[in-house]
Amino acid sequence: MGEREKFGSRMGFMLVSAGCAIGLGNVWKFPYMTGQFGGAGFILIYLVFLAILGIPIMVCEFSVGRGSQKSVASSFRVLEPKGAIAHRYGYLGMLGNYMLMMFYTMVAGWTLFYFYKMIRGTLMKLTPEEIGADFGNMLGSAGVMTFWMIVAVLISFGICSLGLQRGVEKITKIMMIALLVLMIIMCIRSVTLPGASEGLRFYLIPDFDDMVEKGIGNVLFGAMAQSFFTLSLGIGSMAIFGSYLGKSRSLPGEAVGITVLDTSVALMAGLIIIPSCFAFGIEPGAGPGLIFITLPNVFNEMAGGQIWGAAFFLFLCFAALSTVIAVFENIIAFAMDLWHWPRKKAVMVNIVAIIILSMPCVLGFNLWSDFHPFGPESNIMDLEDFIVSNNLLPLGSLFYVLFCVRRYGWGWENFIAEANSGKGLKMPPIRIYMLFILPLVILTVYVKGYWDFFQGQGLSPVLGLAIAGGILCVFGYIAFYRKKGTVPNDLPRGEDDKRF
Question: Other C-beta atoms within 10 Å of 64: how many?
Fold first, then answer.
């Protein structure tokens, strides 16, 4: 095996890592959650949770990646003490990346299809009912859904096949810069619409009475959950970029910069969508249909709506594809780390694998639409998203934190030495917070997520808690098991350390 690839520049690392974090959750979920939970007050709480939850976990992922110089497939095996079985989480991390792409590639295909529709003008002059029916027709067509999913897969793997610097870094930088430019232009357009001022007040001025009406607990948990999931932490999708990073810069500073970029995109997305909804009398908390059903109606009411609609779905394409490219790079690294495959072979095999694995989700909206895993309104995408979002992301984040701070994991001293290596912001002495408080918060998100999901599907929340408890037992075995006589990783490792 040759020397591990590295990013060509710090800017490349920042934009590729931010591209992984910036996805449809920023553009799709954040605006409608802001609408549902009261606007500016929700945003303030979200930012606080982002700082105290997201950044420490991201530093853990980056540190494990850079310290091991491996993907999640083998990073824990390199760093764990002899006798531990932390490396078994690597299989769950790999599963998480594949399962995320099993439905994300399909949704990325939706964004490409709607950009194509906007360019052609096929959505213009349709009535709101016709636009809703058009979205339903897309979901009902297995051929259309499959075609655009494959287009998204081929574009993304094609970029990854060019290599880290020439492909992933170079093209993602262009996409991210274009995304930011498009968003700034659309923000200016949105806030200057007649009637947008009411939306700006809702978005920028906290109304705590409205928060009380919606339930402080609901708003707090909504903000905490969104801040936790927005960065896609827990399955090693950030760790891989740490493994491509040199030691000239400290990792807390890089994590803060990436979080600021991710948050800026989410805030700008809200600034585009919410004032536009208020300007045209549309409910901003309309849910997931906001993007593909509600907003095309908004563009139809705008002067030059076809141009603005095409620009919106173009930046949505960039947001979706930047995440797909980043996760595909992680998937390619699995094969390169575990089986020493060349990049081209890893790309070709995974093109076939991802297309096949994505088909159940595609067919779940049409040919297999009678399959309801949780209830009459659920489908295969709900099942896949539940496994990733309600299980692998929170438990994976918990695992990374415990692995980094426990002496029978990697150990705090090793973790802090790696995180603080290089110039820039340093990790504060917060071991107690990361050992006790942060895991408790993550467990709260995990358990509350199960309760809400089962209750929302019309199932018994108690059954959900029982399942969550069983999964936690398995997780605890992997996280805490060690053979008798295992030597803790509480000292920096060196060449003369024969324990390893």
Answer: 27
The reported pLDDT for the residue numbered 490 is 66
- pLDDT of 27 reads 79
Closest CA relative to residue 449, chosen from 386, 380, 362, 363: 386
Averaged pLDDT, 134-140: 94
d(CA 145, CA 359): 9
Rounded CA-CA distance 364/379 in Å is: 6
Phi, psi of 9 (to 5 degrees): -155, 160
pTM: 0.92
Calculated CA dihedral for residues 51, 53, 59, 62, nearest 10 degrees = -120
Q: Is there a contact between 335 and 126 (Cβ–Cβ < 8 Å)?
A: no
pLDDT value at residue 118: 95
C-alpha closest to that of 364 among 92, 107, 29, 93: 107
How far does Cα 370 stand from its chain's mean position?
A: 29
Quickly list DSSP for 124-172: TT--HHHHHHHHHHHHH-HHHHHHHHHHHHHHHHHHHHT-IIIIIIHHH
